[in-house]
UniProtKB/TrEMBL annotation, chain B:
The keyword Membrane applies. Its main location: membrane. This is ATP-binding cassette domain-containing protein. The keyword tRNA-binding does not apply. GO terms for cellular component: ATP-binding cassette (ABC) transporter complex. Keywords: ATP-binding, Cell membrane, Membrane, Nucleotide-binding, Repeat, Translocase, Transport. It comes from Acetobacterium paludosum. The lineage of its organism: Bacteria, Bacillati, Bacillota, Clostridia, Eubacteriales. It is a peripheral membrane protein.
Length: 294, 564, 330
C-alpha cells in the first residue's frame, strides 16, 4: 500500500522541485523511436561484418596459401609415411595412424597462427571465449553431455573467423581437460571442437551459413552429431578394437547415438536461446577493440 | 632534464564536435611527482593515455608532445614499453597470466631479455615489493591490494623512467590504498622515477606531489605546487574543491593570509595559529537530540549469529541492531569484520544459524522471494556491472520491470505506465541523457546510478548498499548523497556499508562501528565521530583541539567564521 | 608424500610420460604390459595414496575393463581356436578373447598413467615446454587458466546480485529458472568481454607484440637433470634395440605368437629389465632422496636441531595440557 503511494508521491515531489530542469532536458533530448535506432545499429554491424569479411579475405589470400602448403606437405608426405610405419607396427596400426593424422592436421593451424604473430586483442578474444567454454563445460558438470561448448565455438567461428573458431575450440578442449583430466581422448576432442568452429567460419564467409537462429541451430545439430560424435566414436573404436569392420563401426555409432543426441540437442538449445545476443555482444566488442581498423 | 613537454595540444575524439582536450601546455621534469586532478570525465585519462602512444585513443590530435625532446609519436614500441610504465585502474583486469612470477616476467619477456636477466629482475622486484611470500601462487588467491601491487611491480621490473598511474587505488579499500600509494611515493623517493598520476584519494598523494594540474572540461585551469593550487582554487572559487583534501577545503572557506595546509598535521597547526589557545574560543556544535520515542522499525536484527560453514569461525556474533523507517544507517568498520555478511543476512542470501531478522516486523524467512525483492528490499551489489543485461541504458531499465511489452507496471496505480516510470527514474538518477548508450560505456559513477535506478524500479522500501562510493569522485559522491537523501524523504530506508567515513559523516543519520562481527557503538554521526579519535573524519581530526563536535568540512568552516 | 621426481626439469617429466604412454599404447606384448601396469599402479599409489588410487581403479577401471574385453570377440572373428558360434553364425575364438583382454588392460594402463601425468605435468610445466615452440598459444593457454577461476568467481557475484532482485536460479518453475540462468550467463559474457579490453591494454602497455619475445620460467636444467636424462636415454635405446631385434614381438591374430617368454632368452631379459628400470625411475628417485634425508637426520648437526624441535614440541604439549585443564575448570 505504502509502496505505490510512495512512488507516486516521490515522482510528483520530484516534478515539482525541478520542473525547469525537466523542460530543458526535454528540449535537449529527443528520444528517437527505438526501432529506428536498432535498425541503424544493425546496419552499422552489417557494414562492419562486410568490412571484416573483406579484411579476412585479404588476409586469407596470403595466409591460406601458407596453410595449404603445410597441409599439402602433411597430406602427401607425412601421412603416407605414417601409414607405412603404422602397417609395420602391426595390430595397433589404426590407433597409431589415426592419432598421428589428428595431430598432423592441427599442426598447420598452429604454425600459421604462430607465424603471423597475432596481436594482443586476438589472443584475448580467443582466451576469453575459450575460458567461457571451459567454465560452461564445468558449470554443467552434473548433466553429462549437455554442454554449451559447441555453441560457443560455432559463434566464435562466425564472429571472429574460421581460424579463431578453430582455436577457441581446440583450447577449450585442451584446457577443460586440465580440470577434468587429460587422457588419450584429448587430441580428438581438441580437433573435433576446433574443426567445428573452423567450418562454421568458412561456411559463414562463403555465405553458405547465415547467422540466423535456425540455420545456426541446424548447423549446430549436424556438426555436433556427425563431426564431434563421429570423430570421438571412431576414436574409441580405434582404441578398443583391433579390427575395423562395418558391424563394429555400426555398433559403436549406435551405442554412442543417445549421448551424441543429447549433446547435439544441448548445442541447439544454447544456440537457440543465446546465439543472437552473443553475436551482438561480439560485434560490439569487435568495434570497441578496433578489430576492424586493421 | 625535461622528461615530457606538451605544447598547444588539442584532441578531439572521432565523431565528436567538442574537443576532449583543449590547449594543453605543460612540462614535466625528470624525477617529478605530478598529480592530475579534476572531476570524472574532465579528460585526465585521455591526457595520460597520450603519454603512452600504444594506449592513445583514436582521434584528431593537434599540437605536439615531446618525450625527452623528441616527438612521442616517433617513439618505437620497444622504448616506450620499457621507459614509460602505465598502471591502469582495475587490479583484476590488468593481470594477464595465471601465476604471480609469470606476471612479473611478462613485460621482460616481451622485451626479449634472456632467462638469467629476467630471473635477476624478477627476484629484485619480488624483494623490493615484498612479494616473495606469494611469488609462486596463482593470482586468483591474491587480494585486491596484492593484485595492484603485482601490477605495479611487473611494470617496475622493466625499469621505466616514467611511471603513469591512472586512478590506481579506486578499487581498493582504504588501508590497501594507503599502502599502495606509499609504495608509489617510495619508488619516487628511492629511485627517482618520474610519477604522473590521477587519484581520488588526494590526501595521501598531494603532500608528496611536486606539481599539481587541475583540469576541468578538457583544459588545465590551475597548476603549481599543492600549496599554490590551494591559493589559486580559492581565488577561482571553483567547485573542484570538493575533491581536495579536507584541510584544503577548510582553508578555502576561511579568510587567512597563511599558506595552505595539506595534511591534517599542517591543518592543526594552521588552526592553532588562527585561533591561539589564549583566546580560549572553543566553538562547540551542539549534538542532535536523539529522539527515543518509539518509531516503526524497518529492520530489526535480534541476537543473530552466523558462520559460513560449520567448522569456520563465526562471522557475525550476537548482533542486535534496529533500524528505523526512513533512516539512513551507515555501517562502518575495517575489512573482514562481517559488514558485507550482515548485508547478505538482511537480504536473506545467507541465513543465520541463531537469532532472527525482521523486516517491517515480519521474519525475513517468512517472505517469499517475490514478496521480498518486489516492493520490499533492494540490494545494490558492490560491482554495478553485475546487473547490466541489455545493450542500451533504456532497454536495461525496462528489463528489470519485465521488458517493454505490457505497458502497465505491475502493482502500481493506473496512471504510471512503464514508460513514465523509466523516464522519471532516469531523471531522478541523472542518467536521462545516456539512454541510448551501452551500459559499459558509462563512467563508474554513471554505472552506479544506473544500477541504483534499476533497483529502485522494483520500488524497494529498504535499500541495502554495499560500498556505494567505491571508485567515485567527490562530485559523484555528492550526487549520490543527494539522491539517497531524496529517496529517504519519500520513506525509503537506506542501510549502507562503507569504508568512506567522510561520506557517512555527511549523509548518515546514524553510524555503527562494526568490529568482530558485532556493532560496537551506534550513534548519530556527530556524536559517533567526535567520540572516536582515530576512526573519524579528517576535518574532525584536524579541528578537535579547537572545536568540539565539528565533523565535516562545513562544520569546521562554520566554526571558523563564528569565531572570527 | 612429497614426490621428488616432479621437482625435476619439465623436459624430464614430459619425456618420461611420453615414453611410457607410447610403449603402453603400442606394444601388445604381455610382459611389457605387465611391467607397465605394475609401475603405473605403484606410481599412482605413491602419488595419490592407497585409498584414492584403489577407489579410482575399482570404480572406474573394472567395468571399463570388462566392457572393452567383451567388445573385441563380438566383432573380431579371426583366430584358429574356435570356441563356439554366436547366434548370427559368427565364431568366437580364443585368440580374439585374449586379444580383447589385452586391449582392455592396455586401456586401463594408459588411463592410470594419465592419472599420474595429470598430477605431475602441471600447467606451469606445460607452458614452459611449449612457451618457446608455440609462444602465442601457450600464452593463450595461460590466460585461459587465469580467466576460468575469475569467471567462476564472477558468476557467483552475478547470481547473488540477481538473487537480490528476485531472480534466483534455485527456486521457481523450470522455465523461470532456465531464463534466470541464461540471464546470468549473458551478464557474465558481457562482463568478461568488456573487461578483457583492459587486459589487452595492459598487454600492449607491457610491450606485447615486440619481436623476439622470450619465454621465462623458473625451471633450470641442472646437473641432476642431465644425469637422469642420460640414464633415461640409455634405457630407451636398450629397450628399442631389444624391440627391433624381435625380442618382444607379440601377435594375437590369427594365431598367438609371443616371443621371449617360453624360452626366456638373454636378449628378452635385457629388454624387460631396461623397461622395468625405466618405468620405475620416479620410484627410484623418490626412494633415493628419502634415504638421503634419513641419512642426513642421523648426522650430528641435524640431530641437535631435531632434539631442540622435540624439546619445544614437548613444552608445547605441556602448555596444551594446561590450557585444557583451565578450560575444563571454566
Amino acid at each position: 500500500m505504502l509502496s505505490n503511494e510512495s512512488l507516486d508521491e516521490f515522482l510528483e515531489g520530484f516534478l515539482n522541485t525541478s520542473v525547469k530542469k525537466n523542460d530543458q532536458q526535454h528540449k535537449q533530448r529527443k528520444i528517437e523511436p527505438e526501432e529506428v535506432t536498432v535498425r541503424a545499429e544493425a546496419e552499422v554491424i552489417n557494414d562492419d561484418v562486410e568490412k571484416i569479411a573483406e579484411n579476412d579475405d585479404r588476409a586469407k589470400n596470403n595466409k591460406l596459401g601458407k596453410r595449404t602448403w603445410m597441409a599439402i606437405i602433411m597430406i602427401f608426405v607425412m601421412i603416407p609415411l605414417t601409414i607405412c610405419f603404422g602397417i609395420l607396427i602391426g595390430d595397433r596400426k589404426y590407433y597409431f595412424i589415426s592419432m598421428a593424422i589428428i595431430v598432423y592436421t592441427m599442426i598447420p593451424f598452429f604454425m600459421v597462427f604462430e607465424g603471423r604473430k597475432p596481436q594482443a586483442r586476438e589472443l584475448i578474444v580467443i582466451a576469453v571465449l575459450a575460458a567461457i567454454g571451459v567454465a560452461g563445460r564445468a558449470a554443467f558438470f552434473m548433466l553429462p553431455q549437455f554442454k554449451p561448448v559447441v555453441a560457443i565455438v560455432i559463434i566464435a567461428g562466425i564472429s571472429f573467423g574460421a581460424e579463431s573458431g578453430f582455436f577457441v575450440g581446440a583450447m577449450t578442449g585442451f584446457v577443460s581437460n586440465f580440470f577434468f583430466g587429460q587422457g588419450p581422448w584429448t587430441p580428438w576432442q581438441m580437433f573435433a571442437f576446433g574443426i567445428i568452429g573452423f567450418l562454421a567460419g568458412i561456411l559463414y564467409k562463403k555465405g553458405l551459413l547465415k547467422s540466423t537462429k535456425y540455420q545456426l541451430c541446424i548447423y549446430g545439430f549436424l556438426a555436433t552429431f556427425f563431426i564431434y560424435g563421429g570423430l570421438l566414436n571412431m576414436a574409441s573404436l580405434f582404441m578398443y578394437s583391433s579390427i575395423i569392420t562395418w558391424p563394429s563401426v555400426l555398433a559403436i555409432y549406435i551405442s554412442g547415438a543417445p549421448f551424441d543426441l543429447i549433446h547435439a540437442v544441448s548445442t541447439v538449445f544454447f544456440l537457440f536461446i543465446a546465439s543472437r545476443a552473443m553475436i551482438e555482444k561480439l560485434e560490439r566488442i569487435k568495434k570497441k577493440y578496433g578489430l576492424i581498423e586493421r | 632534464m625535461t622528461e615530457l613537454i606538451v605544447r598547444n595540444m588539442n584532441f578531439t575524439y572521432p565523431e565528436m564536435d567538442k574537443p576532449a582536450l583543449k590547449n594543453i601546455n605543460l612540462e614535466i621534469e625528470d624525477g617529478d611527482f605530478v598529480v592530475f586532478c579534476g572531476k570524472s570525465g574532465c579528460g585526465k585519462t585521455t591526457l595520460l593515455r597520450h603519454f603512452k602512444p600504444v594506449l592513445t585513443p583514436f582521434g584528431r590530435l593537434e599540437g605536439e608532445i615531446l618525450y625527452r625532446e623528441n616527438s612521442i609519436k616517433n617513439l618505437d614500441l620497444k622504448t616506450q614499453s620499457q621507459e614509460i610504465g602505465y598502471v591502469l585502474q582495475s587490479p583484476e583486469n590488468q593481470i594477464v597470466t595465471d601465476k604471480v612470477w609469470h606476471e612479473l616476467a611478462f613485460g621482460l619477456e616481451s622485451l626479449g631479455y634472456d632467462s638469467a636477466t629476467i630471473r635477476l629482475r624478477v627476484a629484485e622486484m619480488a624483494s623490493y615489493f615484498g612479494i616473495q611470500a606469494w611469488f609462486k601462487r596463482n593470482v586468483v588467491e591474491l587480494s585486491g591490494g596484492q593484485k595492484q601491487l603485482l601490477n605495479l611491480a611487473s611494470i617496475m621490473a622493466m625499469h621505466p623512467s616514467i611511471l603513469i598511474l591512472d586512478e590506481p587505488t579506486s578499487q581498493l579499500d582504504p588501508i590497501a590504498a594507503s599502502d599502495f600509494l606509499e609504495t608509489v611515493r617510495k619508488i619516487n623517493r628511492d629511485l627517482g622515477t618520474t610519477i604522473i598520476m590521477t587519484e581520488h584519494r588526494l590526501e595521501d598523494v598531494l603532500p608528496a606531489a611536486d606539481k599539481v594540474f587541475v583540469m576541468d572540461e578538457g583544459a588545465i585551469i590551475a597548476w603549481g605546487t599543492p600549496q599554490a593550487i590551494g591559493k589559486q582554487l580559492k581565488s577561482l572559487g571553483h567547485d573542484m574543491f570538493l575533491s581536495m583534501p579536507a584541510p584544503m577545503q577548510i582553508y578555502a572557506g576561511v579568510d587567512s593570509e597563511l599558506s595552505c595546509p595539506l595534511t591534517v598535521r599542517e591543518g592543526r597547526k594552521w588552526l592553532s595559529t588562527l585561533f591561539p589557545e589564549k583566546d580560549g574560543v572553543r566553538q562547540r556544535i551542539p549534538l542532535e537530540m536523539t529522539d527515543d520515542k518509539k518509531e516503526e522499525l524497518a529492520v530489526e536484527i535480534k541476537d543473530t549469529w552466523f558462520r559460513y560453514e560449520k567448522n569456520l569461525p563465526d562471522v557475525v556474533k550476537d548482533l542486535t541492531l534496529s533500524i528505523k523507517k526512513g533512516e539512513l544507517y551507515c555501517i562502518v568498520g575495517g575489512n573482514g569484520t562481517g559488514k558485507t555478511t550482515t548485508i547478505s543476512l538482511i537480504a536473506g542470501i545467507n541465513k543465520p544459524y541463531r537469532g532472527k531478522i525482521y523486516l517491517n516486523g515480519k521474519d525475513v524467512r517468512k517472505y517469499s522471494d517475490k514478496e521480498l525483492f518486489n516492493n520490499n528490499l533492494g540490494v545494490l551489489p558492490q560491482n554495478p556491472q553485475s546487473l547490466f543485461v541489455k545493450k542500451t541504458v533504456e532497454l536495461d531499465l525496462y528489463e528489470v520491470i519485465g521488458g517493454k511489452n505490457n505497458k502497465r507496471m505491475e502493482g502500481v496505480d493506473s496512471e504510471i505506465t512503464k514508460k513514465i516510470a523509466v523516464e522519471k527514474m532516469a531523471q531522478l538518477f541523472h542518467i536521462e541523457q545516456l539512454m541510448t548508450q551501452h551500459p559499459y560505456d558509462l563512467s563508474g559513477g554513471e554505472q552506479q546510478r544506473l544500477a541504483l535506478a534499476k533497483i529502485m524500479l522494483l520500488k524497494p522500501q529498504i535499500l541495502l548498499l554495499d560500498e556505494p562510493t567505491k571508485g567515485l569522485d567527490n562530485n559523484f559522491k555528492q550526487e549520490l548523497g543527494e539522491i539517497l537523501k531524496k529517496l529517504q524523504e519519500h520513506g525509503v530506508t537506506v542501510i549502507m556499508v562503507s569504508h568512506d567515513i567522510e561520506f557517512c559523516a555527511l549523509y548518515g543519520d546514524r553510524c555503527g562501528l562494526f568490529f568482530e562481527g558485532n556493532i560496537v557503538t551506534s550513534n548519530t554521526p556527530r556524536a559517533f565521530f567526535s567520540g572516536n579519535s582515530f576512526y573519524t573524519t579528517a576535518a574532525n581530526r584536524m579541528s578537535r583541539h579547537v572545536f568540539e563536535n565539528a565533523i565535516t568540512v562545513k562544520d569546521v568552516i562554520k566554526c571558523c567564521q563564528m569565531s572570527h | 608424500m612429497e614426490d621428488t621426481f616432479s621437482t625435476y626439469h619439465p623436459i624430464i617429466s614430459f619425456s618420461y610420460f611420453c615414453v611410457v604412454l607410447i610403449i603402453s599404447m603400442f606394444f601388445i606384448h604381455p610382459v611389457v604390459l605387465g611391467i607397465s601396469l605394475f609401475s603405473a599402479i605403484t606410481y599412482s599409489v605413491l602419488l595419490l595414496g592407497w585409498k584414492k588410487s584403489l577407489k579410482f581403479n575399482f570404480l572406474f577401471m573394472l567395468p571399463m575393463l570388462i566392457i572393452v574385453a567383451l567388445i573385441n570377440p563380438m566383432f573380431n572373428h579371426a583366430g584358429v581356436t574356435i570356441l563356439f558360434y554366436l547366434n548370427n553364425g559368427n565364431p568366437v575364438t580364443l585368440e580374439s578373447i585374449i586379444y580383447g583382454i589385452v586391449l582392455a588392460v592396455m586401456l586401463v594402463i594408459v588411463i592410470i598413467w594419465f592419472s599420474c601425468y595429470n598430477k605431475i605435468m602441471t600447467s606451469d610445466k606445460f607452458i614452459y615446454l611449449f612457451g618457446r615452440i608455440i609462444p602465442a598459444l601457450s600464452l593463450i593457454f595461460s590466460m585461459v587458466l587465469r580467466f576460468v577461476p575469475k569467471f567462476k568467481a564472477q558468476l557467483k557475484v552475478i547470481s547473488n546480485g540477481q538473487k537480490c532482485i528476485g531472480r534466483d536460479v534455485s527456486n521457481g518453475n523450470i522455465i523461470a529458472r532456465a531464463r534466470h540462468g541464461v540471464t546470468i550467463l549473458s551478464i557474465m559474457i558481457t562482463w568478461a568481454l568488456e573487461n578483457a579490453i583492459e587486459t589487452a591494454d595492459s598487454m600492449k602497455a607491457r610491450g606485447y607484440g615486440l619481436k623476439g619475445r622470450t619465454a621465462f620460467s623458473l625451471y633450470r636444467f641442472d646437473k641432476r637433470d642431465g644425469i637422469l636424462l642420460i640414464i633415461m636415454a640409455l634405457l630407451v635405446v636398450v629397450f628399442w634395440g631389444g624391440a627391433l631385434s624381435g625380442n618382444i614381438f607379440a601377435q594375437y591374430n590369427p594365431i598367438i605368437i609371443v616371443n621371449g617368454v617360453a624360452p626366456l632368452t638373454i636378449g628378452s631379459l635385457i629388454t624387460y629389465t631396461s623397461l622395468l628400470l625405466f618405468c620405475l625411475i620416479p620410484i627410484f628417485v623418490d626412494a633415493f632422496y628419502e634415504l638421503k634425508w634419513l641419512e642426513m637426520r642421523r648426522s650430528f648437526p641435524l640431530k641437535g636441531a631435531v632434539a631442540v624441535e622435540n624439546f619445544m614440541l614437548g613444552e608445547y604439549k605441556e602448555k596444551l595440557k594446561e590450557d585444557l585443564v583451565i578450560n575444563k575448570n571454566c
